[in-house]
Amino acid sequence: MRMPTVNVINIVGDKVDTIELPDSIFGIKPNSQVVSEYVRMYLANQRIGSANTKNRSAVAGGGAKPYRQKGTGRARQGTIRAGQFVGGGRIFGPSPRDFHYTMPKKKKRLALCSVLSDRVRNSKCMVVERLELQDDKTGSVAAFIKNLDAESKNYLIVTSDYEGVLVRCGRNIPYVAVKQWVDLNAYEALKHEFILIDKKIVDSLKEKAG
Question: Domains in the chain, please, with CATH?
């Protein structure tokens, strides 16, 4: 099976070479079902179940029986904080809920590889030879993206290590995100139309693959 090939560009945006990517990561058949499962899990884990109400045991007061059990002609009551009273507790109201759940590591990896393979297949992925900015300015990143002439709405730059300068310069551009390879997930990759990968990552992956 032929390994997928993408263009290698420099920090200016000019093509300097081509490179083969590991087909086990960038050349698989995308599994949309697993990607969908991962996105649902990721979004569910971002939820904060903060909706909360007080039941009859949580509201203040109501410790004494309001009136005697028999002889008044009224319905028996044990507390004025029951749900039928004004100021009483909420009956079956919402309480804080944990929406967090997980999925097997192999499925997480499959979801990420599916998105990366889809981007490579649709020519929405390039490798950057050296991710080193000429100066510490947002304009440098903006000029780099503009020179790509990729006609994409948003871009994800994947680095091998934490690049503080690149992160600071890229965060001011709404259509650019910077992520480390170790922190990359299928949701982040799917959210961005075009992916730029540090060449160090590809070299490391090839070395591990043998």
Answer: 5-39+102-209 (3.40.1370.10), 48-98 (no CATH)
